[in-house]
Write a structure and sequence with these properties.
42 strands, 10 helices
């Protein structure tokens, strides 16, 4: 999402399309304005679902998040993506649209007011590229903006005042999908701008999916059901956990507006771009699917690894997104960052996502009744990432990794006895240890089914070189329904282990139906920590336990700047510079291990001057999962605020930045002179 030029108004009269710009009047030729009588297309106000397009959320590719306007966005790339869709089986999974974003055209129209493809990027022309995509059995999409210019800083020609001419060009080229952005809109009413382009597209007689990229500013979900097939609900996503989380939270409440032919669009998939972990990418794919969101790949598949293709090609998860009933998942609960989202499916089952927003593993639970299924003696549960079937008595629960999601489908199934009982394996609490020092931890395995889990045994394994030894029983001859096996372990990391979070695996083996042995592997986590130094020290000199940020990395002793590490400037709030501190961007969480050894925290907080007058944020301090102090919403006009907290006896402390309720753009938030006394 980019900033907008000054307001202007638009009118159509006497065969001319007119736009008032800063006191001058721009007049387009009559040929660019609406024809006197457009051919019938269901009538203005007809629901777009009647055109038979986008009856399930569109799936495909868009180049912007991987290339922006760089030279590698060109004809060869677009053709290469189409080839990969076929070669890698993505076409068979359901991906069909290969879409161009900004920068495909020259900066100026020709003498007839037509758009001109960039001959350097697309030497064969747009129609030839579209023909190539179509030859693969795929569909082709293009981009422009509902303004005088597009969103790139160069400012390529926008569609405002040229809607019918541009739509005719798109149809002649064989375009199947139009993304219509919101930059340089001159203050013209959004509904008017997007409705005009809708009418222009319909007038061509060529079916085209119409994607309204208005960033959610005028709440298009409330008015665009007869205008477009999908509408962006937020600003642009970026390849970070903070951005993904913020967008998910804005999109989830809009479930009532999604239906066949109309979809809430939380922006592209970041899977494969490299800025998040595999766990976080699986979470994005899971949540976008349960939200019935468009699945548009935003990574350069020519460079993607096999793990990215495994995520994007998960047919069972895609089936949740593409379910023809067209429901968007609803939030059942979200206490403590433990999210349960359920989606009704065509044949009566429920897709259920257990999503852990927090930075450490958490147990998340719900019931079949809570997600809308009828009472039953037992239920079949299908894990859509493990591709395994089990049975449950009614409770659905899992220990979910930090930023992770467990995605299942649940049926009231009279054949539930033919499936083995589901096990819930987890850890009793967060695990912390110091390198070279043994720590005692405990694990649990609970039988969620109605049948016994026979010959149950558990094992815990850590990274190479770690010593892991059980100190209590690891076996149960028959774990009855609803019962738990608790095992304690001694865990010791090598003395040379660096601070950080490490994966450990709890394995549970048991006898399933017909004597078949089943093994259930549960990823867990242990944090290797160092105690903070005695006395008062700057947090920017102290290793953090975990960190997430809405844009780019959290910076030490610098403002957050842009997306690269170290690109910020001196921390500056209200003209005052600070040599020490943390530069963050909402939403952000920075967590520190205190080990019960510290007494107080202090900082000066505020919005960094590098964003001028833009940005809003609030600052919070949490200890052991409890908020102990916070500011009100601050703006760039607010002077630096002193924030302090008593942390005596606390094991962990989290510094949290939230946005001010107006989106996360420009929310550059500083923890200046942040100190900890221990």
């Amino acid at each position: 999402m980019r900033s907008l030029p000054p307001n202007h108004s638009r009118r159509v009269a006497a065969g001319l399309a007119c736009v008032v710009l800063a006191g001058a009047v721009y007049t387009a030729p009559a040929s660019l304005a609406a024809p006197a009588q457009a051919p019938p297309y269901g009538g203005v106000g007809a629901a777009v679902e009647r055109d038979g397009l986008a009856l399930t959320p569109p799936m495909g590719f868009n180049n912007w998040n991987s290339t922006h306007c760089r030279a590698d966005f060109n004809e060869a790339m677009v053709k290469g993506i189409a080839d990969i869709f076929v070669a890698k089986g993505l076409k068979e999974v359901g991906y069909e649209y290969v879409n161009l974003d900004d920068c495909w055209a020259l900066p100026q129209r020709d003498a007839q007011g037509k758009l001109v493809p960039d001959p350097q990027r697309f030497p064969s022309g747009i129609k030839a590229v579209a023909d190539y995509v179509h030859s693969k059995g795929l569909k082709f999409g293009i981009y422009t903006s509902a303004g005088t210019k597009t969103c790139d800083r160069i400012g390529f020609p926008g569609g405002l005042g040229h809607e019918y001419s541009d739509a005719r060009q798109f149809a002649d080229w064989g375009v199947d999908y139009l993304k219509y952005d919101n930059c340089s809109n001159q203050g013209v009413d959004a509904r008017q701008r997007y409705t005009t382009m809708r009418d222009a597209l319909r007038a061509t007689g060529r079916p085209m999916v119409f994607s309204i990229c208005e960033w959610g500013e005028s709440k298009p979900w409330e008015w665009a059901s007869d205008v477009g097939h999908l509408w962006r609900t937020t600003g642009d996503i970026n390849d970070s956990w903070g951005s993904t989380l913020a967008i998910m939270k804005k999109n989830l409440p809009l479930h009532a507006y999604a239906k066949p032919g109309n979809w809430n669009d939380p922006d592209m998939l970041e899977v494969g771009n490299g800025g998040m972990t595999g766990t976080e990418y699986r979470t994005q794919f899971s949540l976008w699917s349960i939200m019935a969101a468009p699945l548009l790949i935003g990574s350069d598949l020519r460079k993607a690894d096999e793990k990215a293709f495994e995520i994007l090609g998960n047919r069972e998860v895609v089936a949740v997104d593409q379910d023809p009933l067209g429901r968007q998942g609803k939030v059942i609960s979200s206490d403590g960052g433990r999210w349960v989202v359920a989606k009704e499916m065509t044949e009566g089952s429920r897709a259920v996502a257990l999503f852990n927003e927090s930075d450490r593993p958490q147990r998340i639970a719900t019931t079949a009744l809570d997600v809308g299924l009828p009472q039953s003696a037992g239920y079949r549960m299908r894990d859509l990432w493990r591709h395994t079937d089990t049975s449950v008595a009614g409770t659905v629960a899992a220990t979910v990794p930090a930023h992770g999601t467990v995605l299942v489908r649940l049926w009231a199934d009279r054949h539930w006895k033919s499936y083995p009982p589901a096990l819930e394996a987890g850890q009793s609490s967060a695990w912390f240890t110091q390198a070279g020092v043994p720590a005692e931890v405990s694990t649990t395995v609970t039988n969620l089914g109605r049948k016994k889990a026979k010959s149950l045994s558990v094992d815990l394994t850590g990274p190479a070189g770690w010593a892991v030894t059980p100190t209590s029983p690891t076996e149960s001859g028959a774990l009855r329904a609803g019962k738990t096996l608790t095992t304690t372990w001694s865990v010791k990391a090598p003395p040379s282990t660096r601070p950080g979070t490490y994966d450990v695996t709890l394995s549970a083996a048991y006898e399933g139906p017909k004597g078949v042995t089943r093994v259930y592997d549960q990823p867990l986590a242990v944090s290797v920590v160092v105690l903070p130094p005695d006395g008062t020290s700057y947090l920017s000199d102290t290793p953090w336990l975990s960190v997430s940020n809405g844009w780019g990395p959290v910076e030490k002793d610098r403002s957050v700047g842009e997306s690269a590490l170290g690109d910020g400037g001196p921390i500056t709030i209200g003209g005052t510079r600070y040599t020490k501190g943390l530069g963050a961007h909402a939403p952000s969480v920075v967590e520190y291990y205190l080990g019960g050894e510290c007494s107080s925290f202090k900082a000066m907080v505020g919005l960094d001057d590098e964003t001028g007058t833009r940005g809003t944020a609030a600052f919070e301090v949490w200890v052991d999962g409890r908020k102990v102090t916070a500011t009100e919403i601050l703006t760039n006009a607010t002077p630096a605020q002193r924030l302090s907290a008593a942390v005596a006896g606390a094991e962990t402390m989290r510094l949290v930045v939230t946005d001010g309720g107006d989106g996360i753009s420009y929310d550059h938030a500083d923890w200046a002179d942040a100190t900890l006394t221990c």
